[in-house]
Amino acid sequence: MNDKIKGVPMINLLFRKAVPEDLNEVTAMYLAAICEMRRNGIEQWDEIYPNRSTLENDITADQLMLGLTDNVIASAYVLNHEFDTEYTFGAFEGHGLTFTVIHRLCVSPAFQNKGVGSATLRFIEEQVLEQGIDSIRLDAFSKNPYALKMYDRQGYRKAGTANLRKGEFLLMEKILSAKRMAAPGACVGKGNTADIHLWDDHKVIKLLHTGYPYCNVRTEYSNSLAINHLDFPKPKSYALITYEQRYGIIYDRIEGENLLDNCLRTFDLAFCAGTMAKLHKKILSNHCNTLPDYKEFLRCHAEKAAKKLSFNDEDIRIKITERIALLPEGDNLCHGDFHPGNIIIASSDDNAGTYIIDFMNLCRGPVLYDIARTVNLIQYTPVPKDTQDISSMLAFKKALADKYLEQMNTTREDIAVYMDLISLCRQNECPDM
Q: Residue 257: how many CB atoms within 10 A of its CB?
């Protein structure tokens, strides 16, 4: 393959599979590349990976490809279908398309800045298309500007991040075929941060608004995967994707009215509180030790809220941290956003019952903490500005909180230790409060 870029002589590359006799030369090339990266302050690879043993295994597996010029190794790579579990959290646009993964792409320092990397990528793409594969995925070290520039120039787009041994890597993707993921169907719901669209007969896609942070959608998707197997009614999650530069999570389709709309329509506080309590008790009976501790959540938001509220007194911030540290321990599954608006009363005979949605704030902690969160959400979330009778709405919210506590066999004294800290955190979660 020939490659020519402005101001750079043409280099002829011949590609073939590596054989055992290549091991010494290819190992020396990778070591030279590691030294060159370190000289440039890029700590991407080291003596642990990729080492001689890694490359020997690649050759034994018949997967290591070499790019040669005048019988000298100029580049090397591996192409297969293996990938780290972190790829699960990539918001890939090619959801449902076939893909292969590039590993250990390396250009000899003697041939860098001569178009060899770009030529190697183009050869890989030709190879992939010949195999009838739709797309390519890879991960690139976030602190390697040279590699990132090359991938961007060759049309690879960011699909998320992966936290690997050496730090943060960018998950990247390039779709090669004319195939594209099916477009979402009709919009069936709108929220503050996302719209819900039909995906197929049994699924929907929660399509986040443009600009919604990837770290937040990754957290929600990771949380949803952690609880997919637990025993309480919820829509199961299936994939994190990108559609027209918007992140989306594919969930089971649950049709019905949310409990908040039902309550505002019927004013049946007893039904609303009873339904909430029954579902909440079921959720709280579960345990999931892969979720973060609730104190981490409180510390994070309390510190940010203190800064926003200009708590310049260091003693106050220390006291807040000390108070959080002294809170009770617990390992129950806490939803963190349990309120009537996140409860769906299913209308389908196939999915009869009530379902909880929205998994952004999941954590593990004491039962009373999550009950306190719910009381705060019900009673102290600001009333909409267009509410005509504010005093009646405030009374309604307090009455619902009281009914809910009664159904949970909990008093306000039981949850008092959490309430002011939760209110402080909510100042950061919802700045308009």
A: 14
**What are the structure tokens assigned to 215, written together?**
């770290």
User: In this structure, which CATH number among 3.10.20.30, 3.40.1360.10, 3.90.1200.10, 1.10.260.40 belongs to the domain 256-429?
Assistant: 3.90.1200.10
Q: Which fold has domain 2-88+95-175?
A: Aminopeptidase (3.40.630)
* Amino acid at position 207, single letter: L
**pTM metric for this prediction:** 0.79
pLDDT tens by residue, the chain, 433 residues? 444 444 445 578 999 999 999 999 999 999 999 999 999 999 999 999 999 999 999 999 999 999 999 999 999 999 999 999 999 999 998 888 899 999 999 999 999 999 999 999 999 999 999 999 999 999 999 999 999 999 999 999 999 999 999 999 999 999 998 777 778 999 998 888 999 999 999 999 999 999 999 999 999 999 999 999 999 999 999 999 999 889 999 999 999 999 999 999 999 999 999 999 999 999 999 999 999 999 999 999 988 888 777 666 677 778 888 999 999 999 999 999 999 999 999 987 666 799 999 999 999 999 999 999 999 999 998 888 888 889 999 999 999 999 999 999 999 999 999 999 999 999 887 755 5
Cβ-based burial of 79 (10 A; exposed 0-12, middle 13-18, buried ≥19): buried
- Distance between CA 226 and CA 228 in Å, rounded? 6
187-252: CATH superfamily: Phosphorylase Kinase; domain 1 (3.30.200.20)
